[in-house]
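Input:
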Amino acid sequence: MPQREPLIFEYSRAGRGASDQWPHEADPAALADLPAALRRAAPPQLPEVGELEAVRHFTRLSQLNFSIDTHFYPLGSCTMKYNPKACNQYAMLPEFLARHPLAPESSGQGLLACLYELQEMLKAVSGMEGVALSPMAGAHGEFAGVAMIRAYHRARGDLKRNEIIVPEAAHGTNPATATMCGCVVREIPIEPEGDVDVAALEAAVGPNTAGIMLTNPSTLGVFERRIEEVARIVHEAGGLLYYDGANLNAILGKVRPGDMGFDVIHMNLHKTFSTPHGGGGPGAGAVGVGARLVPFLPVPLVGREGERYRWLTEADLPQSIGRLSAFMGNTGVLLRAYIYMRLLGREGMQSVGEYATLNANYLMARLRAAGFDVPYPRRRAGHEFIVTLKRQARELNVTAMDFAKRLLDYGFHAPTTYFPLLVPECLLIEPTETESKDVLDVFVSAMSQIQKEAEQEPARVTTAPHTMPVRRLDDVRAARQLDLTWKPTPP
Amino acid sequence: MIAIVNPTSLALLKPPGEWGARGADIAVGEGQPLGVPLSSGGPYLGFMTARMEHVRQLPGRIVGRTLDVAGREGFTLTLQAREQHIRRAKATSNICTNQGLAVTAATIYMSLMGPQGLTRTAAAAHARTRELIAALTRVPGVRLAFPGPYFHEAVLTLDRPVAPVLKSLSNRGILGGLDLSGYFPELGNALLVCATETKTLADVERYRAQLTEAMQAARAA
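Output:
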C-alpha cells in the first residue's frame, strides 16, 4: 500500500528554494516608488522546497491517480476515451503555446485557419448552420445555448417565453443552467421504457415555453425514440429545441441533431473529440445553431474573407449574446480537438459512433449473461448503459457504492455511481470505442468475481477498497468540520 | 468588497485580506501569470477566494481534507449540496468541467517559486517595467500618461495615432503593446505597455531604438 504523501507545505524548510527557476534579483532601489502603505509586511506563506523535492512530490501524487493511460476508465457520461498523443504534441508547438491573445490577426493566420476549419467540421458533424468555439465547458455551452434561445424570443418581442422544459433524467446542469439564464424550469417525467413522456410534454408546452433541453441518448443510456414528435410539439408551441451534446459520442458520424430539427446544440469537445480532461478539465463546449439563432452566437467567431481569416466581433454580429471569455475560450483545447478530427478524418469519425455503441452493447450483453440486472432489458444501449444492483443491495446488503469501491482494487476506475437519480443502486458504464474486447472481458470477470465475493464474504466488498492510498473517506466530517485551507502549525 | 488582483503583484503588495479595516470579502483574479502558457487566451485558471462566512455561496468544486475509516488523512470534494448534480435548479452555479490542469500547473509553479522566488519575480517585473518606461519616455513624442505608481504595466501617450506606430513596430519584430484608443477614446493616443521578468535590458533597449524609428516612420507617413 502506498505511503501517505505529505503536503508540499510539510516539506518546507526556511531558506530553501528551487533557485535555478527564479529570475534575476532586481535592485531593491527599483521598489522605492511603491508606496509603503501598499506594500505587504511579510512575504506570502508559500512552501520553500528544492526543485528535486517538488519534482518528486508531484510525480508521486500523479502516481496515486487512475488515468486513461494506466487504467480502464468506464466513467459513464464522461467519455473517458484515449487521447492520442499526437494531439498534445502538435497543440504544444511553441508557436501555438506562446502566442499572445491580443497579437494581431496578421501574425496568427495559422491559428485562425485551424479554428475556422474546426468551426466548419463541427457544422458538418452536427448539421448546424453556425458554430461558436468560445464556451469553455459543457455547462458554459449550455449557458450560451439558453441565452441565445432567450435572446431570440426577446428579439421577436415574445417576452413571456421564460420556461425551459427539462426531462427528469437530465443532467443537473440543464436545470441549473436554465435558472442561471433567468428561466423557470419545468421538469417532465420519463416513461417506464426510458423515453420522454410525450403526453406530459404536450401538457407542459404553451405560450410561456422558451424551449426544451434534451439529451440523446438520454442519461438512462437509451436513445430517445420519439424525437421527431418532441420536435414537432415544441416547435408548434413556439419553443426551440436544445440538444445537450454530452452523449454525442453515441451518434457521431451516423445522425445529425440539425437534421432532427434541433435549433441549438453544445458539444463537449473534451468528451467526443478526445481532449484530455482528467482532474476535471479544461474542456471546451462549442455551440452549434440553426439559421434562426446564427445572429445571436457568442463572439468572437473566426471569419474568412478570401484567403484571409479574421475575428468576427460585436461589430459583425450586433445581436450577439456577447463574450463568454476574455478571448477565444480554451484555445489550446480547441486545437487538440481540431487535430483529433483531422487524424480521424471522415471515415474514422463514422466509426466512432459505431464502435462506441458496439462496445457498450457487447459489455451490457456480457454483464447480463453474467447475471447482472439492467433497468431497460428490452432496450439496446447507446454508448453507455446502466446496471442496477437493487437486488444485491436487498438480498446481500452490498450496494452499488460497494461494487464501485471494490472495482478499484481490481484496477478499474469505477463507473459513475448513483446517477441518473431515477434508477436505484445504479452504475452508469461507458466503455468508449477505444477499448479492446480483451479489456471489456477482464472487466466482466472482475464484476463476476465481486458478485461472488458479495455472496460469500460480503465484508470484503463492503469495506473496499483495500489497496488504495486511502480507504473510504468521511464525507460528513469533510462537510461539517471544514478543512479547506492549509494553516501553519504554531512553533 | 470584491478585490480584483494580479497574483504575482501580491508578493510585494498588501493582500486583499488586509485591505482597510476588515479586509476585502472576496478576492478574484486571473491565474495565468502563475506559470500557465499564454496560448492565445486559454486554457487559463481564474481564482475566487472568500471569507469563510461566504463559503456556502461559492460556485464550483471545493476540495476539503478529511479522514478515512482507518483515520488516515485524505481529500474529497465537499459542500456538494451547493452543486448542480445535487441541487439542480437551485444550485449556486451550473459548473462541472473546470480548469483543473491549469490549476495543477499554477500549484507546481508556486511551489517552485516559493516566497523568495515569487517576490523576486514581482520585483524583477516591476523593475524592468520602470526601465522600459524610462527608456520609452526618452523617445521624442512619448510621455507617461499617469503620475501614480504602477506594478508591471503603464499607459504611454503618443503625440500621433498609435495604430500606425504599432504596425511599424510589428514589421520590426516587436509586438509593442495594446492600443487603448478603442477602449478609452478619452485618453487620446494611448498605448498600454508591459514588461515582465522574462524581458532583458537588451530587449528594453531594442524596443526604445525601434520605437524611435517607428515614430519617425509614422510621422513621415
